[in-house]
Amino acid sequence: MSELTLTVMRLGFLAVLWLFVIVAVQVIRSDLFGTRVTQRGSRREAGRQQAARQAPPQQRQQPSGGRRGRNTPTKLVVTEGTLTGTTVALQGQTITLGRAHDSTIVLDDDYASSRHARIYPDRDGQWIVEDLGSTNGTYLDRTRLTTPTPISPGAPIRIGKTVIELRK
Amino acid sequence: MSSTSNPSTQHTSTIGAIGAPSRRNTELALLVFAVVIPVFAYANVGLALDDQVPAGLLSYGLGLGLMAGLGHLAVRKFAPYADPLLLPLATLLNGLGLVAIWRLDQSEKLQASRTFVEAAPRQLMYSAIGVAFFVAVLFFLKDHRVLQRYTYISMAGALVLLLLPLVPGLGHNVFGAKIWIKIPGLGTLQPGEFAKIVLAVFFAGYLMVKRDALALASRRFMGLYLPRGRDLGPIIVVWIISILILVFETDLGTSLLFFGMFVIMLYVATERTSWIVFGLLMSAVGAVGVASFEPHIQTRVQAWLDPMREFELSRAGVQDGIVHSEQAMQALWAFGSGGTLGSGWGQGHSDLIGFAANSDFILATFGEELGLAGVMALLLLYALIVERGVRTALAARDPFGKLLAIGLSGAFALQVFVVAGGVMGLIPLTGMTMPFLAYGGSSVIANWALIGILLRISDTARRPAPAPVSNPDAEMTQVVRP
């Protein structure tokens, strides 16, 4: 085998190896920014709504939910507690909270019951929080919940040391 | 707009890759790539050594391809939303390791040694068993939270695995490090590799329950949270066990791995930097203390501080009761002669390292034949595996899964650091092996199982929320509404 062929193969192999690394990083990149479009949209939208209120409501509509109104939240964010920063996209599903392992959000909190509360949309797409007979209660702002209560975006829902809120 | 009133938490939402596509086709494309690269390397070795494409190319390529294909089908079937990168990365590393082992099999110097056996076919078999373990983990472990039930059984299991090499008649001393057991008729096994996984399960389950006590009850002193005396209990127990491993099994790597894994998980569970400070201090005290009286560790430290002297002593055949080794210096020479771009596959002389050239010192072969550029790419592949593990931990919605993923990827990272650092002369050499690359059944099988558990956690974390359940309350209002 000639020296030239071997040199070409040697450099070619290193190039292919690095190509794999670069492709892998590209996959990570697309994975990381998979939610970027919606985020950017909501941030721009928020700024626009503060500046001028005449933003067309069609722009808010998500592809997943056809008939969502202006005030429909799109995600649930944990703002305090051990799970701070966790988000769950709201796609019309019921979200259960509690210490049970099959909850959507598993709370690791001494003050939470195993099936503590659930959050679900009613027929109009209004999100409702309901306490499931927990020991220490679920609080919306400062008031303890006794009946299923509609949630407005940004209102803190407190369960033990965990605080969650709905965001647009 | 109350939702935008708190901009500091606005950036947190990138954590969950929720509603993401399954990415299985991406994984398949990457897998094809990950199989083609080792086949290329295999052909390259044959062309460089014998001027012809090696005869086993087709069977090797098919074998690797079959393993990758089976792994992929299992992921598609049992964990459809799992991370797309972990499987291709592991396949590529495993394939490259096979090529390097086969390349060292061709060395006439190694063939002349008494203990020579064809390592590549065995390694291919071990890899196949490893992939079978991987598939079995995905098949039997439908939900990683099941493991939480076995917290204390795992502790007992891990202790048994760690103690097995010390049992008389079962333990097997390989050049000073007693981390092997010998099963009659089956060969040798390194139980520490499996203990790594089992211990991660125990630490995750234990810390999940105890982390509030460990994090909250503390006093602040000089910017550090000082834990109460009694909360120091667990870390001291783990420290003592790791010191005992160091003393009785004389393996720095295993000891460092377990203690390091516990400190990483403790830090992640409690968010207290003070644990890292404590951990570093304790491991430094322990390592220095043990090294002051344990001769095997002293030899390793000597070889690390002055490899050239060890090399000359070994060449001169000095018999002073200590085993002098040429290998540390030879590994450094291998890296040096590789330079930036390496000598090319099959054209290096890393087989001169002799014993353990294809296991502990396999990175030196890569360093010589692929050069700095190749080793950097390899280390990046490892870094990517760890990154995917950490991201899995971030995306996981249950604390047990978070801690388990962090523990497994932390242990993986520590192992790569300990081995690569040892071979390159950054820290004293240990008896551990490079995950996936090095020759050794236990290591390959355990690491495939580890990747399987990480894929299971990431599948749970990345799975989109279940389809909307029809709501009984909404049904009732339907009747009332006009």
From TrEMBL, chain A:
Keywords: Phosphoprotein. Pfam families: FHA. Residues 38-74 are annotated as: Disordered. Residues 95-145 form the FHA domain. It comes from the Bacteria. InterPro entries: Cell_Proc_Reg/RNA_Proc, FHA_dom, SMAD_FHA_dom_sf. Residues 48-65 have a biased composition (Low complexity). This is FHA domain-containing protein. It comes from Actinospica acidiphila.
UniProtKB/TrEMBL annotation, chain B:
Its main location: membrane. The chain crosses the membrane at residues 28-49, 55-73, 85-104, 124-141, 153-171, 191-209, 230-248, 254-270, 275-293, 361-382, 403-430, 436-455. GO terms for biological process: cell division. It comes from the Bacteria. It is a multi-pass membrane protein. InterPro entries: FtsW/RodA (IPR001182). Keywords: Cell cycle, Cell division, Cell shape, Membrane, Transmembrane, Transmembrane helix. It is found in: Membrane. This is Cell division protein FtsW. It comes from Streptomyces griseorubens.
